[in-house]
Amino acid sequence: MEQQFRRVASGNTMAHGRSLTVARLNLIALVIAVGLWLATYFLNETGLLVMLLGLAALVAAGVLAVIIGTIRKNKWGINFESVACPCCTTRLPQIRKPKSVQQALWGGYTCPTCGVEVDKWGRKIN
Ligand SMILES: [Zn+2]
User: Fold this and answer.
1) Which residue among 21, 33, 44, 104 is least enclosed by CB atoms within 10 Å?
2) Ligand 1 center–CA 112 separation, angstroms
3) How far away, in angstroms, is 75 Cα from ligand 1 center?
4) Is 110 within a domain?
């Protein structure tokens, strides 16, 4: 199931490239901005307060996910250290060009020497 999804995801990448993801993120930001603007018109003070608390909770959940992700080394975490390819020990560049939507969203590398896919923690992805 997961492998199938991965195949579909990489297929999309081949067809549309990186711009698709950027366009989608811009759209999400636009929808949020318009939603906030509309909310200030239609909600009373209590409604706005509830909404702001909801947003604050979402941001807090995001920050928590990043902290836990960094400790547990999952896809939500941030890796500040440089990574080497687990197969040929080539140092992978800190600044990278994502080769797939998954890499653009969650980080990771494709080794320029042996072509192995590596996540942002330097673990091989099969
Ligand atoms: Zn390699």
Assistant:
1) 44
2) 7
3) 21
4) yes
Domain that holds residue 85: 79-125
**Nearest Cα residue to 90 out of 109, 111, 119, 107:** 111
Q: What is the pLDDT of residues 11-67, one digit of tens each?
A: 444 444 456 677 888 899 999 899 888 888 888 888 888 889 999 999 999 999 999
The answer to the question of residue 103 being in a domain is yes
- Please give the Cα distance from 66 to 52 (Å, whole number): 21
Residue 25 lies in a domain: no
Cα–Cα distance, 79 to 120 (Å, whole number)? 7
Indicate the number of domains in the chain. 1
Query: 91 CA to middle of ligand 1, Å?
Result: 9
CA Rg, the chain, in Å? 19
